[in-house]
Structures are given as C-alpha cells and as structure tokens.
Amino acid sequence: MEFLVRTENRLPADTPGQTRDQLRKAERERAMELRADGVLKRLWRVPGRNATIGLYEAEDPAALHDALTSLPMWPWMDVTVEALATHPQER
C-alpha cells in the first residue's frame, strides 16, 4: 500500500542545540534506512515550515505505523496519513 504522510516537527524551541543536532542526525540516518528498505519512496520539504510530505510504501497501516514510530523525531511530530489507491486511469 502507498501512503501520503504529512509531518510537522513540533520539537520545543527551547531544545538545546546539541540535542537538536543529534536528533536531526539520527532522523536522517533512520530515513536513509527506510529508503534502503523501500518504505520511504519520496520526501519533500514544505518551504517556510518545519514540515515534510513523504510517499511511503508499506504492507499495511500497521507496518507504516511501525516505520513512522521508529523515527527519532516521532514524539514531536504532528502526523497526517492518507492511504492512496490507484486511479483507474493509471491502469
């Protein structure tokens, strides 16, 4: 299944810089692992916001949930997920 995932990072503004840097590095590494596993297909940033839009592929919603919760920034993410279905014109 494919999913469109919108995330907004809500990491508190008073998070120490070193902690913020460590989280960003860990987030990047985990995203690369998900990409290598074929789960994260595409990722776009939203200009002017601390947000992304990602195209994910997972066996089912539970597998997607597992992938998303494995992200180091998960506790501070506001997430919206839309399951995608193939349009008849694409067949």
How can the largest sheet be summarized?
4 strands, antiparallel
Helical fraction:
25-40%
Indicate the low-confidence ranges by residue numbers: none
**Rg over CA atoms:** 14 Å
- Number of DSSP-assigned strands: 4
Mean pLDDT: 96
Count of discrete alpha- or pi-helical segments spanning 4 or more residues: 2
H-E string: EHEEHE
Could you write a compact summary of the structure shown?
With 91 residues, the chain is an alpha+beta fold. The protein is 32% helix and 33% strand. It has helices at 17-36, 61-69, and strands at 2-9, 40-46, 51-57, 77-84.
Describe the structure.
This is Muconolactone Delta-isomerase. Residues 1-23 are annotated as: Disordered. Its EC number is 5.3.3.4. It catalyses: (S)-muconolactone = (4,5-dihydro-5-oxofuran-2-yl)-acetate. The chain has 2 helices and 4 strands, in the order βαββαβ. By secondary structure, it is of the alpha+beta class. It has a 4-stranded antiparallel beta sheet with strand order 2-3-1-4. The chain starts with a strand and ends in a 7-residue tail after the last strand. The mean pLDDT is 96.
